[in-house]
Specification:
Elements lengths: L1 H15 L1 H4 L12 E5 L2 E9 L2 E7 L2 H5 L16 E5 L2 E5 L3 E6 L11 H4 L8 E5 L4 E15 L2 E11 L6 E3 L15 E3 L15 E4 L3 E5 L5 E7 L2 E9 L2 E7 L3 H12 L12 E3 L7 H14 L5 E4 L20 H10 L3 E6 L2 E2 L6 H7 L23 E2 L5 H14 L7 E4 L12 E2 L2 E2 L7 H16 L7 E3 L11 E4 L7 H15 L6 E2 L34 H13 L4 E3 L15 H14 L1 H14 L4 E2 L1 H4 L13 E3 L3 E3 L9 E6 L4 E4 L5 E3 L2 E6 L7 E4 L2 E6 L11 E7 L4 E6 L14 E7 L4 E4 L13 E3 L3
Parallel strand pairs: 17-18, 17-28, 18-19, 19-22, 22-25, 25-26, 26-27, 38-42
Antiparallel strand pairs: 1-2, 2-3, 3-16, 4-5, 5-6, 6-7, 7-8, 8-9, 9-15, 10-12, 11-14, 12-13, 13-16, 14-15, 20-21, 23-24, 29-30, 30-31, 31-36, 32-35, 33-34, 33-36, 37-38, 39-40, 40-41
Helix pairs in contact: 9-10, 12-13
């Protein structure tokens, strides 16, 4: 047990440091509500709210009683909980649930067979029931298997849960295999840029259709097998205890409210984040970038953000701007602001040996290193070999990094930052962070790396709303103001098809702001089109002439991303602006770009609702139609806020597709206003200028007037009402850039009375508009 005791001391020291300054220092961890002994297995029960409880199991009491790992930042709260003991075991009860650590008899002497096959750990089982006594979930066992990782003697740790045949599972971050329901699969929950189907990102939060979610408290690489062979099994590569949270709720939104309470609020992004974000890998000069920005304005197309991607620097790790190609970056950003635009610039955590900061960082131990202190330089795979990784688990290192971003880059007028390679791309396994091995903290980097910029921005720019483009996530990363995307995906129809369920599971993981590089990131080089091409590629410069259906693919991807939380064009191709896909594609793209801007009042209200509730607004149908079994694994359509049902077209040459309309509501075709009953599958027309789009009966959809960007105050053009039930919608508006939204105000409640056919508002709208004068009732 000497090894376990050593780990206990290390963990206690780490926990006492308030999770290495990821969260403000808090009072010493209170004792758990219950600290139990099950024949040598120690079990701690620690409530955080009436519907949130943490279970920790270890063979060492101090480990069982220690605080959670990084990610969760809430304080334990046992208010309203009670603890009693009866024949069944120890029972912990709140107004929302009861949790029983089942009694375990002292083990009898083993039989001859049991000497070989009996478990080595004293068994523990835990059941969770609702306030009405129905079983919610049951943990049937736990495990610790000794092994050595990167020279450290440690354990694989895991737990198994019951899995009823009708249970379905969602979340766990980003997995691009193309399926929504995780049941019967084994998820490799680790950040992996090189995953075969596309980058995987681990957020170990899984929700079910049975009224609960599990937050798994271990940042090492983890495998999860939901519902496989009638059991849900979690196993992490490195650990000395099992620690997890159970969150219960009558609706999925209650689960996300619990996740928010446990790990932090999702901030409201700047309003510009809901408009078009224009990028390219890469703009090679100041003149090229400004030329694209001016191209949008001269053509009358709205645009909010221009992005300066990688290799604008003189050398990786210089944290500078190459004045040969960008002679006046301050003048460039000022020009963008004069056009009503904002800017984002990519900043990497990698430092070449020849860069000006490398020696200092190496001397301070602020770079990923081997056990002997040797700095890890580059990757052993791919043609991606130069540079060492900033150790952002060290608070001094990430504080220094923000200071250089502020002084060297933000000082030139750049608004927000793109933190690329946040997996990190330099895989830490086998190496050392300041807080421990890269294997032990494999999934942690995106949380700590983005927190440095979020906290630095809050300190040095307190009245300016933060935004970060982030390529990976971990528990709590949503609180750092991240907009996530699906990484460097292929520019193919197959990749587009996989994006839809990928995004729905990512948002189901408590990370509301996810999208993808419109058109794919990799250089367009898809297979020859199998069906007649729907768009003439004449005039397209975004791809080689041999990829004739790429404008069609880009249009379908753009239509889809019009209805994702953010709309960003990016990719490794000669041109990415919307006029560079051919004369036939341009007007279709312009149509959807203008639709996106018309929807900004709706989108911004959704963003504020997510800030308030924690619930995502790009939603798998299982969230809103839990009583319809047909949507449990329906991953190619989704809800976008409370009103829109979106069914993207992901097949080349398709001019129609089947769409299931969930039971429990009627649905209006957005394009024709035709009303359909729910609970049926229809064939929806999908010519190249139409994405199948439906509006739930009983919806209010505010539509904005056209503006060149969100820098122009947008009035409402109309308030569309889709009758069918009485309903309400909370509009929200503010200056779009400050943090005043945190203080309240700015909301106007619209109410529709279906019986009287009347809409009322709780106050005047933007610019003093009268809501009643803007109402347009569909179908009347």
């Amino acid at each position: 047990m000497a090894m376990v005791s050593a780990r206990r001391r290390a963990l206690a020291k780490w926990a006492g440091a308030a999770a290495f300054a990821l969260v403000p220092a808090v009072a010493a961890q209170a004792a758990p509500l219950g600290s139990l002994d099950r024949n040598g297995s120690h079990v701690s029960i620690e409530p955080y709210a009436p519907n949130i409880v943490r279970v920790t199991i270890a063979v060492d009491r101090d480990l069982a009683d220690a605080p959670p790992g990084p990610g969760p930042n809430a304080k334990p709260d046992a208010a309203g909980w009670s603890h009693s003991t009866d024949a069944s075991g120890d029972v912990f009860t709140s107004s929302a649930l009861s949790l029983t650590v089942n009694a375990q008899a002292w083990p009898k002497a083993p039989s001859q067979m049991e000497r070989y096959f009996a478990p080595s750990l004293p068994p523990v089982s835990v059941s969770v029931k609702g306030a009405d006594g129905h079983l919610i979930t049951q943990m049937n066992g736990w495990e610790m298997a000794p092994h050595t990782v990167a020279g450290e003697k440690t354990f694989k740790v895991g737990a198994s849960f019951a899995a009823p045949l009708d249970e379905h599972y969602y979340g766990l971050g980003q997995n691009q295999e193309g399926k929504l329901d995780l049941r019967g699969r084994t998820i490799d929950c680790r950040h992996n840029y090189d995953a075969p189907a596309g980058e995987t990102v681990c957020v170990p939060f899984m929700v079910t259709n049975k009224g609960y979610g599990i937050v798994w408290d271990n940042p090492s690489a983890t495998t999860v097998s939901p519902g496989l062979h009638n059991s849900t099994h979690w196993q992490s590569d490195v650990g000395e205890r099992v620690s997890f949270f159970v969150i219960t709720g009558a609706t999925t939104d209650e689960l996300y409210a619990g996740y928010t309470k446990l790990t932090g609020k999702t901030p409201l992004p700047p309003k510009a984040a809901f408009g078009l974000i224009q990028s390219k890998a890469r703009y090679e000069s100041q003149a090229e970038l400004l030329g694209v920005a001016e191209g949008y304005r001269s053509r009358g197309y709205p645009l909010d953000v221009m992005v300066l991607d990688w290799f604008y620097w003189t050398r990786m790790g210089q944290l500078d701007i190459d004045r040969t190609y960008f002679p006046d970056p301050a003048g460039m950003t000022a020009k963008l602001k004069g056009l009503g635009m904002r800017s984002i610039i990519s900043v990497w955590p990698r430092f070449e040996k020849e860069s000006r900061y490398f020696d200092m960082l190496a001397a301070k131990g602020w770079l990923l290193h081997d056990t002997d202190g040797t700095v890890v330089d580059g990757l052993p795979i791919r043609a991606d070999r130069a540079g060492a990784l900033l150790d952002s688990t060290n608070p001094d290192a990430r504080g220094w990094f923000w200071g250089k971003i502020r002084d060297n880059i933000a000082s030139q007028g750049f608004d927000w930052f793109w933190l690329d390679e946040t997996e990190p791309d330099l895989v830490p396994d086998g190496h050392q962070f300041s807080i421990g091995s890269g294997d032990r903290y494999h999934n942690l980097f995106p949380l700590v790396h983005t927190s440095g910029v979020a906290e630095g921005s809050a300190k040095d720019r307190p009245d300016f709303r933060n935004l970060i483009l982030c390529r990976a996530a971990y528990l709590g990363t949503q609180r750092n103001g991240c907009l996530f995307w699906s990484s460097d995906v292929q520019a193919t129809w197959e990749a587009l098809k996989r994006q839809v369920p990928t995004g729905l599971n990512f948002t189901a993981s408590g990370m509301a702001y996810w999208s993808s590089d419109t058109g794919g990131w990799q250089n367009p080089a898809g297979p020859k089109a199998e069906h007649p091409v729907l768009l003439d590629p004449a005039g397209a410069t975004a791809m080689a002439p041999s990829y004739a259906d790429y404008p069609e693919l880009f249009v379908r991807w753009f239509q889809y991303n019009t209805f994702t939380p953010t709309l960003r064009i990016h990719g490794q191709r000669p041109g990415t602006a919307i006029w560079e896909y051919g004369k036939a594609a341009e007007p279709v793209l312009a149509q959807y770009l203008k639709l996106r801007y018309a929807l900004i009042p709706y989108l911004y209200a959704m963003g504020h609702q997510t800030y308030t509730t924690g619930a995502p607004f790009m939603r798998g149908l299982f969230m809103d139609f839990p009583n319809d079994p047909k949507v449990a694994d329906l991953g190619d359509e989704y809800m976008f806020g409370p009103a829109f049902l979106v069914a993207p077209v992901t097949e080349q040459g398709a001019t129609s597709r089947s769409v299931y309309l969930p039971a429990g509501a009627d649905w209006y075709d957005y394009w024709t206003n035709e009303r359909h009953a729910g609970g049926q599958t229809i064939t929806a027309a999908a010519p190249i200028d139409k994405i199948p789009l439906f509006v739930r009966a009983g919806s209010i959809v505010p539509m904005g007037a056209q503006v060149p960007s969100t820098a122009t105050r947008q009035k409402l053009d109309s308030i569309r009402v889709y009758p069918g039930r009485s309903t309400s919608f909370t509009l929200y508006d503010d200056d779009g850039v400050s943090n005043a939204y945190r203080k309240g105000g700015g909301a106007t409640v619209l109410r529709w009375d279906d019986a009287s056919g009347r809409l009322t508002a709780s106050g005047k709208l933007t610019g003093g508009q009268d809501a009643a004068a803007l109402v347009s009732v569909v179908g009347r």
